[in-house]
Every structure is written in structure tokens, then in C-alpha cells.
Design a protein that fits this description.
By secondary structure, this protein is of the alpha+beta class. Helix content is about 40%, strand content about 20%. Helix 12 crosses helix 13 and helix 16 packs antiparallel against helix 17.
Amino acid sequence: MSIRQNIEVTSHVARDFLQNAAYFNTMPKVVWEYVANSLDAAKEGPIAVIAIEITSHEVRISDNSRGMSRKELSKFFQMHGENILRKQGRKVRGRFGTGKCAAFGLANSLRIDTIQSGSRNVVELHRKDIERAQSGEPFSVKDVEVNQQTHEDDGTIIIIQELNVKRSNVDNVISYLERHLSRYRTRARVTVNGHVCKFKEPPFIKEFTRFPQADVVKHIGGVSLNVKISPIPLDDETRGINILSHGIWHETTLAGIERKESANHIFGQIDVPILEDGEWPIPAFDNTRNNTLNRQNPVVVVLLGWLSKELEDIRSDYVRQVYQERKSEIQAKLEKEAERISNILNQDFFQQEIEFELAQRVSKRSGDKSVKEILDSEGELQLNMVNKQTSSEDSEKTTKNKEDIEQTSPENNTKDRPTKQHINKQSTKNSLIGKDEKMRKVVFSIEFEHYTVEQNRSRYDGATKTIFINLDHPQIASAFETGGNSTSSRQFREICYEAAAVEYAIALPYEKLEKDELYHAADALFDVRDTIDRVTKSFVQALAH
């Protein structure tokens, strides 16, 4: 009679380790995982200090946290083990026990040097040691130092080596860390290659606090939702409501209104403790490292449904208010002023287009001749510089232009009749700008906006060729007040025209660069100066009216 052998749940440790490492597929994610561990292990009282050094060969993350004892270090390397600090009752980010493998998402070697209470332990782990565990048995971490006595302060140094990436984008790491630090409750000073990470909250013009009704409170608790409205559209990483639990960030969302008008102006946060405290058959979190809540969890469903309703109410009210403001009398005046400015800029731009194309024609037809040889005393193309191999179609157009002019000129008024030379010059220029009416379409536009006191006086959006003038900027706001709070005052108009001239002068070289890849940066500097001088002179005439 055979003895029945029980079937047990087991795990292939090496595969489990490397599969979880695959979630950490970017340098920012890898670095943040160890930074977050340092923040979780920060001591009570002193500010957490974390220094990150990134080179082409390694990533080093050092902190002044509580460090790890030999026993804690052993627990650290237990896959899916319970977080030691969480077990002690602290509210920390670590939940699934898989973060220790983060380094192997992008590298082949991990070294941990940690000190706690005068005892130092150093261990190393290499990918080759993991891959040797082919049958799924546990694999060893190499001891370098074991309980070495030291007088150094507590803390941990993570060293990630043998990187499998060609280049580490440090700016992306900094940006990622700054966004995540803004959502973290721990006071910390984090530096990346000497740069101090500081997140600057977007400017906002409105702020709301909303509380759930009784039937929602019984599911998500007595929470408060803080919502802010930015005067400008926010990027994907900044917009949305941060969902926290005991100060730990879990997701940022707009709860289904993402594609609606002005939804990308909304940001804020809500702290929902029950997400950490509650227990359900379907957990509120997943372990995919995508920072999203589990939509199958009942509390998450109620939370997101309530958020969606509140955010939609705020968004629709804001859209209605903006619409009303746009229709107000002062907005109408600003739109007229914007039209005046844009007309002058577009007229100048049109002229620059003609001059630029004319210069290209001259360059193609003149060979190595100097400017003096190409242009006459009036600055016009010399007749003999025009391409003599003109197509028959161009010749016919020139002849027709001559005939039309002769027919419309009074026979008895010869002194007003154009000369043959003038006719030929004019037809040459007309061939360059024959599509005059089509080219005179609006290219640059002006818009006034309330962009808060802290932001720049003006900005340029190259995609729409729109120059935005910030009405909240101290210089412009002061001119408006000095002018009797009137958009028609000379003080206000002068400063707005000047701001537009500067933005236009900076934008113009980019337009030239699109047409001529040989356009030099040195030329751009001179063009900016000349454009400001030229356009402001045109503005003087407009301001007189």
C-alpha cells in the first residue's frame, strides 16, 4: 500500500525574484523604490537625508535612516515577507515585499551596506547567483561584512552596479522623484547628483473642499477632498487627485472625466485611511507597481464613483464661469486689443516671409556675387540678376502684366506710366508673392490670461503660434491699475505691446530655422534685437490711435 504524499504550494524563488524585478523597468522606478524604503525607515525627529549619485557605471543611494540589523537584513531578502516596520505598527509604503529585487530590473549587481546601533553589515547579490538556482531552491546572498563594530552613524547605502542601460537620464529621475516626494508625508532632503529635489505645486486660482454624504461615509469614512483649479492645462503627471491613505500615495486620477473640457486644469488630493486599515477578500491594491487601486474592491468602487461626481460638478461650474468671463465687457476689449497686436505681428511676419523668400531667390540666381552687385541703389533686384532662363510661362505672365498696365494707364499721361524696367521688377516680385491673399492668413495670435503672480509675464505656444500675456504679472497688473483699471489706458497697452514684441522676436528665429536648416544661432541674436526694434516702432503708431 503506497503512502499518499500531500501536494504543497511552493515557489520557484529565482523566477519569482526576477519576474518581480521586471516591474522596475525604468531608472526612475528603480531609484524611487530604494528612496521610498529610506523614507519609510527614517528616524523620528531628524529630517531624512537621502543622497543619490548616478553615473554611467553605478547608482548609489545613501541615507541617514535607522539602518538594518543582521536579522532585519535577512528579513529584507525574504520574498513577499511582511514589512518589518508595518509589523511594528508604522504606516509605511512597503506592502508586497518585492522591492528588494528592483535593482535587477536594470542591473546585474546589488550591494547593501547598512549600519544600526554600531553594527555594520554588508552583503552582495549578483544575477548569476540568482540564475544558478535553476530548480527553484533558495539562493544565498554573499556576506562581505558581518556585525562589524563601528562608530559611524546609522544608515544604509544601496549600490547598484553592472547597469544594463546605455544612458541614465538624470533629469527624468529628478522629475520623477520630485513628483513622488510631493505626495509623501515624510520631511526629507533628497539630492540627485547634487541637485536638491523640490516639487513646486502648480499655480491655482480656485480651491474647493468637499465632504461625502452619509451613504458614502459609511463606505469610505469621513474624509475630505481638496480640489484646486490651475489657470493653465497641466501635464499628465501633475493633473488629477492624489489618493493617499495615512499619507501614503496609491493613485492619481480624474475618475473618468479626463477627456472633458478643462478637466486637465484640476488637481488636488484626498486621504482615505480605510484603504490601509480595511480587510477584504478582494484587496484595495495590486502589486503591479503601476500605482493604481484595484477597481474590483468595493470601497475603491464607491470612492471613485463619488470622486467622479464631485470633480464633474467642479469642472462644469468652472467651465461655465470661464465662458461668462470671456463674454464680459472687459474680455471683449481685451480680445480687440489682442486682434490689434496680432494684426501688426502678422503684417510684419508676412513681410519677413517675402524678404526671406526673395533672399533665397537672389542667392540661387546670383552665384558668388556680393549684395551690392545684386541690388540697385533703391535696394531692389537688378534686372540683369534675374534668371535669364525664365520659363515660357513666366515670360507670358510678364508680358501680360505689361499689357495690363499699359491698357489701364491714360494715353495722355505718360509721366505716370510705369517704365519697362519698373514693370519687369514688379512682375519679378509678384512672382514671389503671387499668393498674397493666401499668405496673409492669421499666423500669430494673442491671448490674455490670468496666470498668477508667480508666473512669467508672457509665454509662447509654438504649436498654436499663440502669445499669452499674463494679466496677473506685477508689471502688467500695476500698469492696469495705474491706468485707472482700464484696458484702453496707454500704460496698460504699452506694456502688453512690449511683452508681445519680445515673445514674437524670440519666436521668429524658430520660424526661420524651419525654413532654413543652415540658419545660425548668432544670426538669431541679431534678428531678435532687430525684430524688437522694428515691431515696437510699428506699435508706436498703433498706440497713437
